Amino acid sequence: MDPLVPTILIPASAAVGVLFAVILWQRVSKIQMTGGSVFRSGDRAYLLEEEQRGDDEVIQKAADIQDAISEGANSFLFTEYKYLGVFMRGSRRDGAAPSFPLRREARRLPLFSRQA
Questions:
Q1: How many Cα atoms are found within 13 Å in the side-chain-facing hemisphere of 109?
Q2: Alpha-carbon distance values, 72 to 60, 75, 77, 78 (Å)
Q3: Global pTM exceeds 0.70
Q4: What is its EC number (predicted)?
Q5: Most confidently modeled of 52-66, 74-88, 96-110?
Q6: Three-state SS annotation for the chain
Q7: What are the residue ranges spanned by the domains of the chain?
Q8: What is the C-alpha separation between 87 and 47, in angstroms, rounded?
Q9: What Å distances lie between residue 103 and 24, 93, 96, 97, 116, CA to CA?
């Protein structure tokens, strides 16, 4: 491969990535966000309202939030492990797990050797 190809390809792909990020930033910045109702007492009225509902309802709401977080985390981890599996499988053509290349001399030396 000509050494000029990576010299051009790497900065060009970085520029495309930055351009794509700017386009997405502009799209997201156009989204109008409306806040919830503002309480005069610094949101204490909402907290007092939640407190009056009772312990059972608060515990149920906390359990629902915990389930949603757990489901999202498991989904994220499953996707990450799937990508990792594809990467690890594709890193060697024979399908074996990838190994770190070590020189023969380094393999024979003890781990904490003072020899160079």
A1: 11
A2: 18, 5, 9, 10
A3: no
A4: 7.1.3.1
A5: 74-88
A6: CCCHHHHHHHHHHHHHHHHHHHHHHHHHHCCCCCCCCCCCCCCHHHHHHHHHCCHHHHHHHHHHHHHHHHHHHHHHHHHHHHHHHHHHHHCCCCCCCCCCCCCHHHHHCCCCCCCC
A7: 1-30, 48-92
A8: 47
A9: 46, 21, 20, 18, 13
Question: How many angstroms separate the CA atoms of 71 and 79, rounded?
Answer: 12
**Encoding tokens for residue 43?**
């949101």
pLDDT of 24-40, one tens digit each?
999 999 988 776 555 55
Q: How far apart are CA 31 and CA 34, in angstroms?
A: 10
pLDDT tens string 68-94: 999 999 999 999 999 888 887 766 665
